[in-house]
Write a structure and sequence with these properties.
Elements: E1 6-9, E2 13-14, E3 21-25, E4 31-41, E5 57-63, E6 65-71, H1 72-80, E7 89-91, E8 100-106, H2 115-121, E9 123-124, E10 133-139, E11 147-156, E12 166-175, E13 178-184, E14 195-202, E15 214-221, E16 224-231, H3 232-241, E17 252-256, E18 267-268, E19 275-285, E20 288-297
């Protein structure tokens, strides 16, 4: 049976205030393909949209588990790395404070070539109980004058009645002291049934205009070099050849296992006995580096 897409407004939004954390409560029973967040600063002295700096670290709660946790700006970079047309869109208003920035949260991953992979990754909520929730938490920057937050979603009415495998996003920070960064056991603590799809490394907090960006990556898994000192240019070219990345995006080094669009290329956490990243920066840093790990797995298990 075919389930056509519908576009719905997400109207249950509370706690919208500068420096606070707004909660978007999404109707249950639907399958969510995309949620679009709309940011506006009604008190701004300009007509342009406020950009992704409007929000901080966005979290998505499904049932009793956080299934996504990512900074709004980093989410935008990750989306753009799949193609510039997947990035946020800002439109100017007719007067000061009228501009809107729209930031998508893709669950179905529309850049995938196989339609069954796209639909299969959309988040089902028909299995949720009466006390379970599907919510998006949006911390709002204290610098926003008069915040306005709205949202809409692309959904359909399919439900298998059970939790489906989705791509979960997890954000982690590491302190940097020098021009190399070593990260041992980066997948420790993740459910053994999960499969790693992508790890995005973002420029350190003290980097200006990519002055300290990641320029080379080495990843060794179970004693085998999976990324063998791959440079940023080589990485961008490989992903572009695979028709995943239209262009390299400044500020991000994406390590992608399934650039061939095959789930078989994902790395199962349960099969990883040891792993270590060695990242080389353009210049020495004394800041904090964030990485976001995307992994396919059961949404009820972390």
């Amino acid at each position: 049976m075919f389930y056509p897409n519908r576009k719905i407004q997400l109207l249950d939004i509370s706690g919208v205030r500068a420096g606070g954390a707004a909660i978007i409560s999404c109707p249950k029973g639907l399958r969510y393909k995309t949620i679009v967040l709309e940011f506006q600063d009604a008190g701004a002295a300009v007509m342009t949209g406020p950009g992704t700096a409007f929000a901080g670290e966005i979290t998505v709660l499904l049932g009793s588990q956080i299934i996504r946790r990512h900074n709004a700006t980093y989410l935008d970079l990750s989306n753009q790395s799949q193609g510039s047309h997947y990035g946020s869109v800002s439109v100017a208003g007719a007067a000061n404070g009228g501009g809107i920035t729209r930031l998508p949260l893709f669950f179905e991953e529309p850049w995938r070539k196989r339609a069954d992979y796209q639909n299969g990754l959309a988040v089902e909520t028909g299995w949720l109980g009466s006390k379970d929730v599907f919510q998006v938490k949006v911390p709002i920057s204290a610098g926003v004058t008069t915040p306005v937050l709205t949202a809409y979603a692309i959904v359909d009415d399919f439900s298998s009645g059970n939790p489906n495998q989705i791509v979960k996003w997890e954000s982690q920070d590491v302190n940097v002291n020098g021009n190399t960064v070593q990260i041992a056991n980066p997948f420790a603590g993740m459910p053994v049934g999960d499969k790693i799809s992508q790890i995005d490394f973002f420029d350190p907090s003290d980097s200006v205009a990519q002055s300290k960006q990641v320029t080379k990556c080495r990843l060794v898994i179970n004693g085998v070099a999976v990324y063998d000192d791959v440079t940023l240019d080589q990485n961008n070219a490989t992903n572009q050849f695979a028709d995943l990345y239209m262009t390299g995006v400044a500020g991000i080094f994406p390590v992608v296992f399934d650039h061939d669009d095959l789930f078989e290329s994902l790395r199962a956490v349960g099969n990883i006995k040891s792993a270590q990243f060695l990242l080389t920066l353009k210049a020495a840093s004394a800041g904090t580096m964030t990485r976001i790990t995307q992994r396919l797995g059961d949404p009820t298990q972390g």
